[in-house]
Amino acid sequence: MRVFRWRPLAVIGAAAALIASASGCGSPSITGAGLQRDFGPNFAQLYLIQQQLIGHPDAVADAGMHTAICTRGGPETPDRGAGTNWSCQVYWPSGPGGQTQTLSYEVDVKPTGCYTAQGPASLVGQQTIRAVDGRMVTNPLFEFYGCLDVG
Amino acid sequence: MSTWTVYRWEMEKLAALLRVRLAAGACFVAPFGFAVALRLQDAVPADTLFGEWVHLSGFATPMVLLVFTSQWALPLIACLVAGDIFAAEDRYGTWKTILTRAASRTSIFWGKSLAAMTYSVLMVALLALGGLSAGELLIGHQPLIGLSGTLIPPGQAAGLVLASWGVAVLPTLGFTAMGLLFSIATRNGPAGILTPTVIGLLMQLLALISGADLVRRVLLTTPYNAWFGFVRADRYYGPLLWGTVVSAGYVIGCLALGYLLMRRRDIDAG
Lengths: 151, 270
Description:
The structure holds two protein chains of two kinds. By secondary structure, chain A is an alpha+beta fold. Helices cover 27% and strands 26% of the residues of chain A. Chain A has one domain. In chain A, the strands form two sheets. Chain A has a five-stranded antiparallel β-sheet, covered by helices on one side. In chain A, strands 5-6 form a two-stranded antiparallel ribbon. Chain A is elongated. The model of chain A is unreliable at 21-27 (pLDDT under 50). Chain B is mainly α. In chain B, strand 1 (144-145) and strand 2 (151-152) form a beta hairpin. In chain B, helix 1 packs across helix 7 (105-138), helix 3 packs antiparallel against helix 7 (105-138) and helix 4 packs antiparallel against helix 7. The longest helix of chain B is centred in the middle third of the chain and has 34 residues, at 105-138. Chain A: Residues 1-22 form the signal peptide. Chain A: This is Secreted protein. Chain A: Keywords: Signal.
């Protein structure tokens, strides 16, 4: 009755073939619109945490900081799908004279829907920053994470 | 003998196995080694979710550990027992002995399957508690930055860490059932242990190269990510619900197939 030993392998092989043939179907649910909806508020919240750490507990994130513009690659690349070449623009309020500045994060979006964003150290600070109590702590804005609901 | 008797008997055998004892010890102690390594260096595993926050909050330790282990370690740990539990009877030639001790095939199947599932749940629990206590003792219980950029207070963070690991139990049980199936089908311990682990790795690879959501949704590795939806301020539970359905599908499918193979097997000839 050794013939039965290969039956589950055949079933799994068939299932794998079915999955592979279905690979072309379905649409990726990672989009620029979805990413910027998540990215903006994420950045604004982390900005508040950073300001608290460095001793500005009164800092506020205005509506503009919740707004992000996320695009992928060059103009010819459609703004959807996982990839390392995403970038998100957000606003930084502490320019000279209270002016807002635009800053751009490099964003790596994984097929799981989770992303890692790295900001320009010149504006958001280095990986570790000096907290109000003098300790060196991780800068929440240097690099941060988020996840999109990809179902 | 009833299923319950077989189950207790299998649990006693498992508790005596060196392989099981080592796995249990490693699951609880390894997180401490991991936390010590994180403490001793400035570098952080920044590419991993929560990796950037390992010095900021001790609750990041069990989360990074969850991301790391769910890549391949959890399927392997689960199948260390499940993949061998039926094949061991072939290796020692003991099928006839246990079947003549008035235990039916059905009760042996369910007793062994339940024992393997219990072991898997215990290992996940040990890793979760090990990670949580290592982070708490070696790094501290500062608030954790969630996936939506908000600070999660320590009590809630501890609950979310345990919930995330709880979610990891579901696909781990799926891999356990797969291990049981291959243990019955191949009658070979190493094949039963390694085949589901390799399938898990292939699934990770498939999720990585395939842009299609349909494919990603039916893979058993995807439910490991279901916690992404709730370690944040504005939660979503779609992936958790679907992940539960997918994990249950794998458990039921593999167990049903394993049960059929076991019922049909000709022990006298085998």
